[in-house]
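Give me C-alpha cells for this 145-residue protein.
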Amino acid sequence: MILEQKLELLGIPSLHIQWLKATNLESKPSDYLIIEDNEKQIIPVSKIVGLDLRGNPGHSWWSHFSQDKGNLPRLGFLIKRMVILGLDDFKATYMMEEFAQDLDLLYFPAFDFYIGTNGSHRITMAKVTNVEYMIGNVTVTKEKL
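Here you go.
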C-alpha cells in the first residue's frame, strides 16, 4: 500500500495530500534580529511556511514527509503514534503543553509567517495531518535597520 493510501485510510483527505505535494517550503528571510525570545503561544499551523535546519526550501511538504528531501528520520515514530492514537487524538496532542517543550519557531511579523527551528518532525506531521493550531515557543524577529 502506498503512503497516500495509508494516510487516506487514517482520515487525511486526498485534497490535502495534493496541497502537501504542491506547497513548497520557504526559506528564512535574511537580515532579521530576535526581539522577543521564546514565549509560549498558540500558533496557526497554516502560517508555518518552512523548517530552518532540517528543511529544504523550494521542496514540498510532501517530499519532506516522504523523506525524499529534508532530514526527518524520526517521522516513522510519529506515524506509528498516529496509528495507535487515531487521527483526532493525535491532532489533539498539539494543544497539550507537555508536547510543546521542544517546538520552537521564529515569527516574522513583516511577512506574518513562522519558520520552525526545533521540532521539525512534529511540525511536519502537523502540516500533514492538517492540524489547525499548536502550542509552541515563539521567538519574534525584527528586520535589521
